[in-house]
Each structure stands twice: as C-alpha cells, then as structure tokens.
Q: What sequence folds into this?
C-alpha cells in the first residue's frame, strides 16, 4: 500500500524540480546582450506599405494584382537606389504563372543572410464563417512581412558599408494556397510552392565557390494586433533562441515570451533548413487564438494591423543584423553564431497532454490510497 507520506514526498519533489528547471531556463535565456546602437526602423512607413498592398487588391498568384505587387516592390527598391540588384524568378504551378522576387544588397561581401516573406494572399477565406469563397485581404498573412522587409532594406542599405554580410530579401509567391480544414486556397496546390522553387534553383543566384549562406529568417504574420511569437520547431533552435533574447533585451517581453508556445509550422523556411541553412520562422499561433482569430478569413485586414507589432519585428531583426554583422572594432557581441545547435522541444499540446496524464495518475493514486484507507478503517470499525 502507498503511504500518504510517500505521495506527499513525490509531489513535493515534482514541484521543486519544475521550479528549478524554470529558474535555470530563465537565467540562461538572458545571456545575450545587444550592442548599443541606434535603430532606425520606421513602423509608420511599414504600415503605409501594407495599405498599398491591400489597395492593390488580392495578390492571388497569376493575377494582374500579383504582377502589380511585384512592380510596386521593384519601384520601392529603385527608390532606395536604382542600381540595387533584383532578380524576378518566374515559374509555374499547375500552368499558373508565378514569380519570386530576390533583392540583394552589399554584394561585395561573401557571407549571405536571407530575410524572407511571402506576398501572395489566399484566394479563398476557408476559415471564414460566412464568405469562404471570397479572397483574404492578407494584411497580416503576407503583406506585413513584406512591408517589414522593404523598410529593413531601406535602413540596412544606408549601413551597408559598415556591415560584413550580404543581405538577400526574398519575397515568395504561391505560399498560401494549400489545404486547411476549410479546403484549398487554390484547388490541388501545396503550401510553400514559391520557396520550394527558389531553393531548388538557389545555385543559379550565388557563387557557391566563394559565397556562403549564414542563416535564413522568415517573417510571417508579424504585424497583427496582440503580437506574440511562438517557438517554431522546424526552425534552428539556437537561431530562434537568439532572436527571442534580442527581442527581450529590447524590452519586447510580451512579444518574445520566456516560455513561448511551442509548435511546428510548415512554412517557407523549411526548405532552407532542409538544405542545411540555419533557419528561423518568426510566426504567431494563428490557430485557435482568441487574440488574433483572423487567419484565412476576410477579417485579415488593415483594421487588425498594429504599428507597434511592426516596430517590434523590424527593430528586433535590425538589431540582430547589427549585433552579428556590424563591422566596428568596438562590437564585441557574442551570440549563438554559427547557429548549428538545434534542439527540439516538445510541442505545447504534448506538454499539456502529458501534464493532464500525470495529474490524472497522481489523482488516481491519491484516490486509491484514500479509498483503501477508508476501507481498512471501516473493516476495523466493524470488528
């Protein structure tokens, strides 16, 4: 028979162990210190860029609106400098013309950092309660990441002579048309068609003998209200951890929580990670989320975009670049580079599931103990 004292000891040990583990995680999650540098990312310009993309219309692959969006991106880059290199990669998905856009700055450097986002918007609002056949505006799911990249391109171009890395900005088409619980965006399409196409032909865009990919950071749904990023598990953990710590050092503790929700998301970064490039997906919990319930609905519009969220995302990535690549003799920053360590954590759903199982078993043990104790007492009283 299990004694009450033994049960109390086991439960006490479990509670103390959880507390110690949490304390260790908290202490070691704050080891990175940002360099002291002025950040210039302008959330107001990023917000206006989202509005322009929305005003163009649904950026469905193969449409005039999709072509107009690429034209808008190119014009924004030419406004920075007409000589900036850009490449339009054309491909087709089920006979539909699609196109990715690659923008390069600081090409004199051999180490390449890739910053990516998708610009297509979903053809059908498959999670909408009423208008499932209407297109998704895609203010957050697509336009926000692109807007942040365009503004980062402006800021980082100004600092290019002080950076010892080349930066690629890649805007992917055909990411968001796969099948969710409400159906396809476009019938028969897979997710991430554009990024898969890009990586398949990535050797066409760089000199593999002399140039090297450092990392890839994907921005997806980064501008919505109530921003809070998750710990995405297809990502390289040491890269994600560093970005989170940089964000927290900037004071963005709500957006980069110490104990983030953990899950795996199929997104544009996965194909880069599979190629061996350290990759990170900055993304929110877009399912069953009362704080941002607009995923794949007609309500993914400008009314649910936050300038503060754009600022948090843009300045965190700007700080990441300066921390690791600002070529100044006073820059002694030490992060997790080269981001080879990749440790997968249990998805939050699994942790909750196992927690329920443990709690249930503990309750059952206590119930059996008390029941048997009562039975013995009753038998003694009958005697």
A:
């Amino acid at each position: 028979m299990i004694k009450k004292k033994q049960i109390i000891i086991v439960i006490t040990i479990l509670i103390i162990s959880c507390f110690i583990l949490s304390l260790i995680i908290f202490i070691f999650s704050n080891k990175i210190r940002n360099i002291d540098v002025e950040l210039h990312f302008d959330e107001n310009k990023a917000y206006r860029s989202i509005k322009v993309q929305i005003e163009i219309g649904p950026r469905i692959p193969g449409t005039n609106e999709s072509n107009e969006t690429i034209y808008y991106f190119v014009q924004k880059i030419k406004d920075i400098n007409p000589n900036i290199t850009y490449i339009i990669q054309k491909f087709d998905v089920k006979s539909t013309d699609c196109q990715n856009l690659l923008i390069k700055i600081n090409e004199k450097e051999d180490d390449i950092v890739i910053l990516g986002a998708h610009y297509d918007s979903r053809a059908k609002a498959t999670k909408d309660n009423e208008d499932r056949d209407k297109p998704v505006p895609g203010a957050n799911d697509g336009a926000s990441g692109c807007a942040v990249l365009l503004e980062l391109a402006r800021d980082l171009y100004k600092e290019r002579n002080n950076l010892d890395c080349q930066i690629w900005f890649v805007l992917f088409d055909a990411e968001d048309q796969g099948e969710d619980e409400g159906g396809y965006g476009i019938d028969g399409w897979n997710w991430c068609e554009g990024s898969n196409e890009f990586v398949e032909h990535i050797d066409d865009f760089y000199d593999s003998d002399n140039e090297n990919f450092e990392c890839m950071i994907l921005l997806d749904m980064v501008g919505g209200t109530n921003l809070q990023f998750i710990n995405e598990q297809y990502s390289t953990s040491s890269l994600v951890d560093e970005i989170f710590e940089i964000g927290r050092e900037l004071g963005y503790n709500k957006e980069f929580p110490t104990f983030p929700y953990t899950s795996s998301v199929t997104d544009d970064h996965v194909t880069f990670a599979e190629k061996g490039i350290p990759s990170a997906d900055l993304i929110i919990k877009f399912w069953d989320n009362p704080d941002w319930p607009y995923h794949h609905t007609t309500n993914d519009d400008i009314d649910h975009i936050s300038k503060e969220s754009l600022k948090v995302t843009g300045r965190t990535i700007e700080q990441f670049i300066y921390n690791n690549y600002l070529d100044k003799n006073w820059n002694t920053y030490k992060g997790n580079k080269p981001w080879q360590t990749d440790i997968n954590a249990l998805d939050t759903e699994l942790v909750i599931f196992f927690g329920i199982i443990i709690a249930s078993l503990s309750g059952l043990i206590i119930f059996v103990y008390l029941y048997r104790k009562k039975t013995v007492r009753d038998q003694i009283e009958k005697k």
